[in-house]
Amino acid sequence: MSHSKADFISYKDFLQKSTKPSVSPCIWKGNDIMEQLDLSLSSDFMGDGRGAVSLINKDTGDAYGVSPNINALVQVLKPGEHNNPHKHSNMALFIVFEGKGYSVIDGEKIEWEKGDVFFSPAWLEHEHCNSSDSENAILYTIQDVPTVSGMGAWFLEEPVGTKPQHVVEDEVTDKDSILPEK
Q1: Rounded to two decimals, what is the model's pTM?
Q2: How many domains are there within the chain?
Q3: Domain assignment of residue 106, given as a range
Q4: Is-contact 153 108, C-beta < 8 A?
Q5: Pairing mode, strands 165-166 and 137-143
Q6: Does the pLDDT value for residue 101 go beyond 70?
Q7: Where does the signal sequence lie (predicted)?
Q8: Domain contains 10
Q9: Alpha-carbon distance 88 to 121, whole Å?
Q10: How far apart are CA 43 and CA 37, in angstroms?
């Protein structure tokens, strides 16, 4: 083991360096979100018919969240779309903005519609399905990815049955991963 990365600073310096900049309030306008969702659908980078866009507060820097500890994304499922079963080490709170469908979380089917809120704890297998033949389903999703990632404990298994990916910059090497290769 190399000691070239080891160093010392005074506790006073540590406390000063641990102070983070404040995060400003911000707003993401609905029309802008919908425009970005439409663009994300055309790329379908996850390969399961799901478009998604993350909401970012620039004050969070590399945390890429709405706050230093929380991230938010908006995802759309086209009519009849069913995403791949997956799991991750972060929790997810879903707010149904539009449409209807169901999710299967740890084997339990949860039917949802506009206005509903449901929760998926960390590392439980889950999947989402838009049960409509004609309308998109839009889910606002609140997660704790910046917190989990900051602790070096963010893992993804997508789809279920593939090797779990430890989402650390030097370790994302799976060619089939939804994550960019580093």
Answers
A1: 0.83
A2: 1
A3: 24-154
A4: no
A5: unpaired
A6: yes
A7: none
A8: no
A9: 9
A10: 10
